[in-house]
Batch of 2 targets.
Target 1
Amino acid sequence: AQSVSQHNHHVILSEAASLELGCNYSYGGTVNLFWYVQYPGQHLQLLLKYFSGDPLVKGIKGFEAEFIKSKFSFNLRKPSVQWSDTAEYFCAVMFNTGKLIFGQGTTLQVKP
Amino acid sequence: AAGVIQSPRHLIKEKRETATLKCYPIPRHDTVYWYQQGPGQDPQFLISFYEKMQSDKGSIPDRFSAQQFSDYHSELNMSSLELGDSALYFCASSFGSYNTGELFFGEGSRLTVL
């Protein structure tokens, strides 16, 4: 079955700390990969995406993610988080059916 | 730039009532997806349409139906509402189907069933 798994459900960091959120998916075929952010009470916003090419992709607000095909992973990173990064982060994978499947989400809380 | 428009933004219904949510995709987008996000949950795929035909189906209850019209807008009809239907319903649109691009999400319609 196609599934997406995020390792951390709740992460608490202090400002300027580095962030890495794990994401794995179960599927051996071609996929497109996304990270979305959802600020409290708001809709999903795209942080970054990977379709092909350089497996290290850079997104908005200083976020980046690395696609490691052999590990079926697409981890999100940011070298130095800010209080404004407090939000829910969703990894999402589009399988060849065209359907976007979301991970369970990770709540990031950044302490000022 | 035009975005995905959803209406209404908020809706309060009683149990066993019906509700209709509307989604207007970005101009020239031909694919629409519906997602349901319960409180503290990840978005769950309900159903999608490509060129006015259902293209995929997820965890959509039988009490729900949806369609995409000739102008590519879509409506999600929900009948015999239950308390558990209270959620944020997202619509997303894209151009083309099957790995052709990212989804653009609307701001969601929040349904509260009392």
Target 2
Amino acid sequence: DVKVTQSSRYLVKRTGEKVFLECVQDMDHENMFWYRQDPGLGLRLIYFSYDVKMKEKGDIPEGYSVSREKKERFSLILESASTNQTSMYLCASRLGGAADTQYFGPGTRLTVL
Amino acid sequence: KQEVTQIPAALSVPEGENLVLNCSFTDSAIYNLQWFRQDPGKGLTSLLLIQSSQREQTSGRLNASLDKSSGRSTLYIAASQPGDSATYLCAVYTGANSKLTFGKGITLSVRP
């Protein structure tokens, strides 16, 4: 079975802190994604990567950056956390293109105080 | 721009009922459609993926259909159980930038 893991289930940070969210997949998938999920707004794509060291902006990249140094690991970085970044963050991976299922991690509930 | 709509936002049914969850999308030029389940505070679990060339997919008590030309998909759940209570999301893949576009989900409650 494909496994996507995220470094923390719950995280509490202070405004202005630099925050790292880590995601690891174990199935050699090409594509990896970071979403945030908020009540009433659904899932929104922040960034995605289709290869090592490659990244593409999603729908809401402002205030975030990403890093993919190894194929299995995709990191989301909040350079200076703000209260409006309090959310559920979900990582996902997919092998290749249209025929492939997208798999999600368990999520990280981030609270910024 | 692709938009995915799921109505109603919430549904409550008695145990044992057969039910249908609806999903509609605005751009019929899709490669596939995927149904997910999400339990409270958890990640998404893939239930079924239907390719654009397919009309339906089945897994156990679940059956998903796709009518690409009309921009609609349904998820049929047979003999619902309390354990089916969750939020069900549909998502379409249009190929543009390899992104899935998600609906906001239907929160299902199955009453014992």
